[in-house]
Amino acid sequence: MNEGVLHRLSAFAETATGGNPAGVWVGEAMPDEETMQKIAADVGFSETAFISPATGIDRTVRYFSPEMEVSFCGHATIAAGAVLASAGGEATYQLTTSVGIVPVTVRSIDGRVEVSLRSVEPQHKLASKAVLDEVLPILGWKHDELDPAIVPAVAYAGAWHLVIAAARSERLAELDYDFEKLRLLMLRENLATLQLVWRENDALFHSRNPFPVGGVVEDPATGAAAAALAGYLRDAGIIRSPTTFQIRQGETMGRPSLLKVDVPATDGIIVTGSVVNI
């Protein structure tokens, strides 16, 4: 196995017990896929990022959940930015991912490490009736519980997410689903997570993200899904841009997370969060 250093951090964390934990491995050369998969499984977090080379502004990154490689992971990218800055200083690092180049900017604000990523160009398409009719019963949700202003869609900003908006906060608060049925549906439809949201107001969304394809019941903070949601809302004309909003996630899990989302008029979405060491 290639020599490397493994870090454990929590991204989008307001406190040491909040946010979404991620592994970040840094070395001169990538391990082989079998080794990366084993490390990710041993770490046990929803994702571990593998970065090489160990120095420089331009790096390559790959992401593994405990079950499989994933195309892009927002919270592990935010965590990776903090690791890179600990050695290379505050800067904008260019991460080459399997979906394109993702710039990551790191700065210290009031003693906290804050990291921003700019996603690749977002895409979206409306969810098919067949998929929606299949997934809602798995979640125990009904059509008349959805927010008619945010039509269900499949959205992308490095990975594909099924966006479903609840009309009421109580609906989002109740999450109980058939893990295996949802996992198989998501594998078939090439979905990374479900982005289940409730819009409290234009400046604040609440989110929950089932992630059974990664072996995780629920993700406490999902940067890739936040970028995909923002791209969909902008490009479908549901929100005006440029604008900013926040996403609160992980609260029902006991891991409160805060994602700050900047939505430019064009191009990728900027997602920002604080990072703490575990």
Helices, by number, come to 6
Number of domains in the coordinates?
2
Fold-level CATH name of the largest domain = Diaminopimelate Epimerase, Chain A, domain 1
Largest sheet: 8 strands, mixed, barrel
Give the neighbour order of strands across the main sheet.
Answer: 1-2-3-4-6-7-8-17
What percent of residues are in strands? Answer: 35-45%
Envelope shape: globular
Order of SSEs? EEHEEEHEEEEHEEHHEEEHEEE
Average the pLDDT over all residues and give the rounded result. 96
What is the name of the CATH superfamily of the largest domain? Answer: Diaminopimelate Epimerase, Chain A, domain 1
Distance between the termini: 25 Å
Q: Report the uncertain regions.
A: none
Q: Strand tally, please?
A: 17
The computed structural class is alpha+beta
Helix content: 10-25%
CATH architecture designation of the largest domain:
Roll
- What's the gyration radius in Å? 18 Å
* CATH class descriptor of the largest domain: Alpha Beta
Question: How does this model look, in words?
Answer:
There is one protein chain. The protein is of the alpha+beta class and 278 residues long. The protein folds into two domains: 4-118, Diaminopimelate Epimerase, Chain A, domain 1 (Roll), CATH 3.10.310.10; 123-277, Diaminopimelate Epimerase, Chain A, domain 1. 24% of the residues lie in helices and 40% in strands. It contains six helices and 17 strands. It has helices at 33-43, 74-88, 129-139, 169-173, 179-189, 223-235; strands at residues 4-11, 20-27, 48-52, 58-64, 69-70, 92-97, 100-109, 112-118, 123-126, 153-156, 160-165, 193-201, 204-211, 216-219, 243-249, 257-263, 270-277. An eight-stranded mixed barrel has the order 1-2-3-4-6-7-8-17. A hairpin with a 2-residue loop joins strand 12 (193-201) and strand 13 (204-211). The longest helix has 15 residues, at 74-88. The chain is globular. The model has no long low-confidence stretch (mean pLDDT 96).
